[in-house]
Amino acid sequence: MVNRVRHHLAALAAVGAELFSLVEEFGKAAEATQNMADRLNLTWREVRDLEQMANIAGVSISGLQRASVRMAESLDETSEAGQKTAKALAAIGVSGQDSGELLKSFLSQLAKIPNDTERIAVAFKVMGKGSQEMLPLIKNLDELRYDFLPLIV
Question: How far apart are CA 37 and CA 46, in angstroms?
Answer without folding.
Answer: 8
